[in-house]
């Protein structure tokens, strides 16, 4: 008897700050869909004991380490701000390691499809790992309002974050599916469920 193994296909899920991508990802998870968070992978590769953290400390100095040996992210951001060569060195070190960590977790997924959640899915080329892209979109005014309420950030700070992220147009150009999240949470859950049942009909090419 031949046993048929269905390999999960990969859905990339992204969106600008305050769009609601995390809430959407959480509801997919509640529906039994595995997901890999690129932000978690990025934090894991610089944990104490990981070779990347040793390399970072050797390059930038021990000031980028906290007393407990953790990475001092604020200090590192200060050191690479306005220093393109240092930022490029850091990206060249970390991006391959993050991609490797993401791929490792994606390969262990057990659900019919698996989601790669990443705010920088387009910018870092992580979308190339996926078979389909879902963009959670929202009007910029709503993104700003949500982020200010959630993080206690100023409007100027939110504008700076928006400018650093991929443009809305670029995200939408890459999208196979767009969910405009401009209503309440129950509506978002309903839309996620609608997409989920559609995604269950798809298979990896």
Automatic annotation (TrEMBL):
Described function: Catalyzes the phosphorylation of the 3'-hydroxyl group of dephosphocoenzyme A to form coenzyme A.
Identification of the protein by name: Dephospho-CoA kinase
Source species, domain of life: Bacteria
Keyword list, A-Z: ATP-binding, Coenzyme A biosynthesis, Cytoplasm, Kinase, Nucleotide-binding, Transferase
InterPro entries, per the entry: Depp_CoAkinase, P-loop_NTPase
Positions with a binding annotation for ATP: 18-23
Family: Belongs to the CoaE family.
Metabolic or biological pathway, per its Swiss-Prot or TrEMBL entry: Cofactor biosynthesis; coenzyme A biosynthesis; CoA from (R)-pantothenate: step 5/5
Main location: cytoplasm
EC number: 2.7.1.24
PANTHER family in the record: BIFUNCTIONAL COENZYME A SYNTHASE-RELATED, DEPHOSPHO-COA KINASE-RELATED
Alphabetized Pfam families for the sequence: CoaE
Gene Ontology MF term list: dephospho-CoA kinase activity
Reactions that this protein is recorded to catalyse: 3'-dephospho-CoA + ATP = ADP + CoA + H(+)
Encoding gene (name): coaE
Compartments it resides in: Cytoplasm
């Amino acid at each position: 008897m031949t046993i048929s193994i269905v390999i999960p296909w990969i859905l990339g899920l992204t969106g600008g700050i305050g769009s609601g991508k995390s809430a959407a990802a959480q509801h997919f998870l509640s529906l039994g869909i595995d997901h890999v968070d690129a932000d978690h992978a990025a934090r894991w590769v610089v944990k104490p004991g990981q070779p990347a953290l040793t390399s970072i400390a050797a390059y930038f100095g021990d000031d980028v380490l906290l007393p407990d040996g953790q990475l001092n992210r604020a200090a590192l951001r200060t050191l690479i701000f306005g220093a393109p060569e240092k930022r490029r060195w850091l990206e060249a070190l970390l991006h391959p390691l993050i991609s490797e960590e993401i791929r490792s977790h994606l390969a262990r997924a057990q659900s019919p499809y698996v989601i790669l959640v990443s705010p920088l899915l387009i910018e870092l080329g992580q979308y190339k790992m996926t078979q389909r892209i879902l963009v959670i979109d929202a009007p910029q005014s709503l993104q700003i309002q949500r982020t200010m309420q959630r993080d206690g950030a100023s409007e100027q700070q939110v504008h700076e974050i928006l400018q650093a992220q991929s443009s809305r147009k670029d995200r939408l150009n890459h999208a196979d599916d767009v969910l405009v999240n401009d209503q309440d949470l129950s509506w978002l859950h309903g839309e996620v469920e609608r997409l989920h049942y559609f995604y269950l009909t798809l298979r990896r090419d």
